[in-house]
Amino acid sequence: MELAMLLEEWRRTDSFIEQVASWQIRAARLAAFRPTPGFLHEALVAAVRKRNVENLYTHQVQALEEVHAGNHIILTTPTASGKTLCYNLPILDTILKDMSTRALYIFPTKALAQDQVAEWSSLTAGLTHDGIHAFTYDGDTPMHVRQRIREAGHVVVTNPDMLHSAILPHHTKWLRLFENLRFIVIDEAHMYRGVFGSHFANVLRRLLRICAFYGSQPQFILCSATIANPEEHAFRLTGQSVTWIGESGAPEGERHTILYNPPLLNRELGIRKSSILEARRLGARLLTENITTLAFVKTRTQVEILSGYWKRDVPERLRTRVMGYRGGYLPSERRTIERGLRAGEIRGVVSTNALELGMDIGSLDAVLTVGHPGSIASVRQQSGRAGRRQGLSLSLFIANASALDQFLVLHPNALLEAPPEEARLSADNLLILMDHVKCGAFELPFSASEQFGDESVGELLSYLADHRVLHRQSSGTYLWMAESMPSLSVSLRSASTENVVIVDTSAPEPKVLGETDRFSALTTLHEEAIYLHQTKSFQVERLDLENGKAFVRSVEADYFTEAELAVRLQMLHLLDGAVEHGKVSHALAEVMVNATPTIFKKLKLETHENLGWGRVHLPEAELHSIGYAVSWPETAADLAKDEWETALAMLGYLLRHTGAVYAMCAVSDLHAAVHVRDVVFEQPTVYLYDAYPGGIGLAERLYRAHGEVFAAAFEVVTACPCEQGCPSCTGPRPRAFAGENPKDAVCSLLRALLRDADEPRSGRVSGTGEGR
Question: Domain limits of the chain?
Answer without folding.
Answer: 33-245, 260-416, 499-557, 570-595+625-758
